Amino acid sequence: MRFWRCGIFVAALLPFLWWAWQVAAGQAGPEPGQYLLLNFGQCALILLLLTLSLTPLMKLTRWKGFAVIRRQLGLWTFSYGVLHLTSYLLFILGLDFSALGEDLQRRPYIIVGFAALLMLLALAVTSNRYSMKRLGKRWKFLHRIVYIALALVLLHFFWVVRADMTQWSGYAFVGVILMLLRIPVISRALGRVRPRRGRISDTQH
Ligand code: HEM
User: Fold this and answer.
1) Average of per-residue pLDDT across 11-40
2) Where are the beta strands (DSSP E) in the chain?
3) What is the pLDDT of residues 158-203, one digit of tens each?
4) Residue 103 lies in a domain
């Protein structure tokens, strides 16, 4: 498990280091702040989708390690979300909070992104064993807000790229597939895939 943990830590850190390097080397285009903002936002969305793909994978393979990886990727999703917010505050708003109200009126999708990030924060702070034990059944219920967070992020993204939805459609398609895999009848079928294979091999031996 330590191998996976380290591998994921490095893999998740690499995009950050690469984009930071691009900015430092002056290769991030005319607007490095915007470059960071967009890349961090997309990275957070990709990580969110990856995190959500681990439960179906765990059902399919029965490998419990996916639960650990899921938590780690969830925390990285939140971290890139925070980097995205930080880029906005630093490079777009220039820390001029008096301009925030006007910007929110002009671009209400920022409020949607903020709501999604708050949900990711709730998930991040309750993703430890202590919270799991303390919250009991409510933990599962609370963690279902990840689906609302995904819907909000997709809405946030949609609002930004309304003029060209090619890229957005790809992410939305993956998101819809991941939600479909959670429909009880499909999810149960996923869980049955492996034992059936087991039974075949049992009869073969
Ligand atoms: C406080 C929270 C947030 C703020 C202030 C914020 C702000 C922004 C802004 C200003 C843009 C548009 C940039 C532009 O085209 O000018 C943007 C785009 C985007 N944001 Fe957010 N956002 C937030 C939360 C999130 C979260 C939580 C995610 C994902 C998990 C996310 C993912 C994206 C994506 C994918 C884009 C589009 C990137 C692209 O066009 O390539 N945002 N955000």
Assistant:
1) 97
2) none
3) 999 998 999 999 999 999 999 999 999 999 998 888 655 444 443 3
4) yes
Q: How many domains does the chain have?
A: 1
Q: What is the mean pLDDT of residues 45-56?
A: 97
- With vertex at residue 118, the alpha carbon angle to CA 110 and CA 1, rounded to the nearest 5 degrees, is 120
Nearest Cα to Cα of residue 8 among 60, 61, 66, 55: 66
In a domain, 135, yes or no: yes
Q: How close is the Cα of 164 to the center of ligand 1, in Å?
A: 16
Q: Is 76 in the pocket of ligand 1 (CB under 6 A)?
A: no
Residue 26 belongs to some domain of the structure: yes
**Residue with CA closest to ligand 1 atom 7:** 110
Residue 187, domain extent: 2-198
Share in percent of the chain as helix, strand, coil (round to 5): 85, 0, 15
